[in-house]
Amino acid sequence: xxxxxxxxxxxxxxxxxxxxxxxxxxxxxxxxxxxxxxxxxxxxxxxxxxxxxxxxxxxxxxxxxxxxxxxxxxxxxxxxxxxxxxxxxxxxxxxxxxxxxxxxxxxxxxxxxxxxxxxxxxx
Length: 123
Fold this sequence. Notes:
This protein is mainly α. It has helices at 10-26, 37-55, 61-87, 93-121. The protein is elongated.
């Protein structure tokens, strides 16, 4: 079966799983947050694999690195928003701590991808 190049990236595969896990967690949010924090978290977490995919359509390594940077920024944004959700008691800290290793692992992968694109662009 044909695959796009980004589908083979572990960072892409892991970030899609994180999207599913975060969406499941968002079901616990109160209805009053449906168009507030919940919506913002959805946009930021979906942006992670989306920008990994988008970078594959770019020619230059600098551009590809840029989209990985956007993906990393979105990952950090979602992380921050989930921390806020814990403080607001929309989710409990144990649920958040369960997701934290996924955030850390994806952040490392994205940093590595960015570094490899930057190194390739300087050659």
